[in-house]
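User: I want to check something. If I give you two sequences, will you return the structure for each one separately, not as a complex?

Assistant: Yes, each is folded on its own. Here is the first sequence with its structure:
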Amino acid sequence: MEEITSEWVYSHIYPDARRPGTVVTERLVLRESGLCRWSRFLDTNDVKGVKAQGEFWRREAVKTVRFSTKLGDPSRDFSLFGERQAVKNRAVFVWLWEVAPVLMAWLSFAFNPLSFTLYTTSGLLAIIWHAFPWDGTRYVMSEAATVTPLVWATVLAAFTFIVSIGASWWLRLGGKEVAKDDVYSSVRPHAAAISRWKWQRPANAIFFGLFGLWCIFVCIICPVLAVQGRSISCEVGGCESSPGVVDGTCGVGSCSCGAWADMHCTNAASLNPYCLATDAPLCSEDSSKASGAHGLLLFIASGSVAFLLLLFLNWGVNHLAIILAWKRGETDPSPALKPDNVPYHRINVTFDPPRGSLVFTVGADEDVGQLTRLLLPEAPPSAWAPPLASSVMEPLWPGDEEPQMLLRNPTTHQAPEDVQWD
């Protein structure tokens, strides 16, 4: 003979993903008499938040029952008074905890000695190319090289050399080699990153050795190019016996040709061919009139392009090795902050006015079709078997006329201090 049951109990226990360490217990009790009760307790010691919710009704008041199956955090279907801002703060904290390390790791790519070497080399190349005379539409090689870019190129080449030394230190090209399995804390990449391939460290050493020599070469040659082909400022005042005839001796009488020429008693007439009216052009139809700076200037510009491309390749290889050597932190708190999503059923019960609606959840293994039939007023309650074993009813508060369910969290076995009813 089939046993007739007067009570059905649905219990759903799950972790709250928005409140780490908190366990939520939902309990739905349906009686044959038509009285229904739902309760939700949070296993938390937070005195500011809501620890419990509850609702009771009679089956005759139910108007509709809707349900949907979801995968996620069941607590997201509840909005507890007093905890909304705390939940938002927790969500921001979780997001920052996960994103900040990744963001800082990627930002470190842009702010490290190797990246700064790439930036300064790019600037050096741009400045050197500005030394070629440009009229806005084309290069005018019949003019002299621009002096100001050559001066700045000298300064930037020296600074690039210093930065490249820092990049060599950052890549551990000097000193004792660190074992790949060594564990240490440093602002420099781990040995597993800068020695991922056997050829990586020797290739870095060869490149930065040649790159340092190139920076020194640019520091020396740019000042030479800045003065090459420039006109010598000389005046032979008082050295003319008649207009257009220079025949005096520097430093004698009223003839003055400058301190150096005066001290050497130079013949003023011998200075006249060397007092050029304009600077020598980079290129000229008459090669004797060209400054000769064109070849060297083009050489350092082309060489800077080549070293910039090699440096970019070196930057990409070393940072790829760093990415491949990344490991997830052993003390990553993300699992505690964001537990795995769980499958569940979301039930929405609406009542006849003036009552509103009620939302609660049950486990994914429950038969929501059977639960729906039990909640509707026309369902014969004694026709079905209980989903779970019936529970023991205890008075929740002294003096209650009807026995009510006392929910004890399976983790703490402590009843909540207070219950807030909607």
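And separately, the second sequence with its own structure:
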Amino acid sequence: MENREHYTFPDNFTWGTATASFQVEGGAHEGGRTDSIWDTYCAVPGNILDSSNGDVACDEYHRYGQDIDLMKELGVGAYRFSVAWPRIVPQADGKINQQGVDYYKKVLDDLRDAGIKPVVTLYHWDLPQYLQNAGGWANRDIAMRYGDYVSSLAHALGDRVEVWTTLNEPWCTAYLGYGNGCHAPGISDYAQALETVHHLNLAHGLGVQAVRAELGESAQVSVTLNLQVTRAASSAAEDLAAKERADLIANEVFLGPMLEGRYDERIIKATSGITDWSFNRSGDMEIIQQPLNVLGVNYYSTVYVRACDPQPEIAPGPSGRPTPGRNPMPAQERVESLAPTGELTDMGWNQEPEGLRDLLLELSERFPGLPLMVTENGSAWQDNVSTDSSSLNFTNGKIVHDPKRVAYMDVHLKALADAIESGANVVGYFAWSLLDNFEWSLGYSKRFGIIRVDYETQERIWKDSGLHFREIVRANAF
């Protein structure tokens, strides 16, 4: 990437920050909410690294007003957050919980009053447990239930929402939840994982249709994918082929159906030892492929892959998060990920900002009419609170100095600026995350926030990265 001193962004560029309901909300047993698969998963000893759960999390259920004030101080124009499905439809009878609807109405109205546009994710992994009891995402009917849920929510919330995002990272739901089982619901069955891929695609299409049926064609709709940026470990033909297979299973299973209305035939061939794809029924592609207003892209790191001999198990990658090289493949089609190199974040992930630039340019070239938005980007590090009398008044004398997070942010924003200058159609960037929060199977052991949370007192403490992001947002440049 070009190294220069000043980077600017387009005049209408959207700056935001992001969270997810189960990670920050808490209030798990309040307001009519019932258990999600993550509540159930957390209750099983050994599933969560620090034996924690999401019962309280960051207590945003009660403190959302305080957090909106933080966003106002940051100066962001948008907030990406998710709705908890079990708070809206808490029982198997499908009836809407008005307490849940009213809660989100208040959040949306307060965001609007603060001049912050709500970008609402409709599904960020917290499936109601009663639906898992009916087979979860491996059951085709769950996609239909999702469509009903979205229809009810769109009707209830109406034009309070700026952008409706159908799904967050279906890759994780399918491969971590149903493939290797390191995420809820904790199932290790790659046949179910591939069924889940398809049913999530179907749910996405049904969700888009439901929003537009309620709100009209002018409703802004998106989906967020954590597209894997894979690099071949060498130029050898077998390693290049391994990269191709990893890309097919990680990325093309979503991009193809959602944006092109098809599954690449190489996907069917590569997974022939696992499933026959009979769950892809006639007419499904017409439902799945829906016009989008924006494509959300989550990016953290790259992975290097090579060809390998068949392995008896498909193992997770660093920190329990499998890499694309460990996606489901028949024995003769296995690929292997290499250990990351360089300075790794606290998640054990590498830092390669060029991967973000390359991904955005490739997507814009392939889908030239589709705006892109970086909906998550950030890094976890070990943080310490300092007492600093020189800190700005609103920090109450406490501050977290996090130079590594600041450096990660800077190099990735440089990559983003380079991509835009090179022609990538990117319209926004959301820092992950507004707050330290529950990092899924790793509990509260990893901190991604640009604002620290003291989980004992729920005090919010500014970090240098938050102050730095504030200056970038205000200047629309750095």
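Because they were folded independently, the notes below concern the second chain alone. Residues 14-475 form a domain with the TIM Barrel fold (CATH 3.20.20.80). The chain is about 40% helix and 15% strand.
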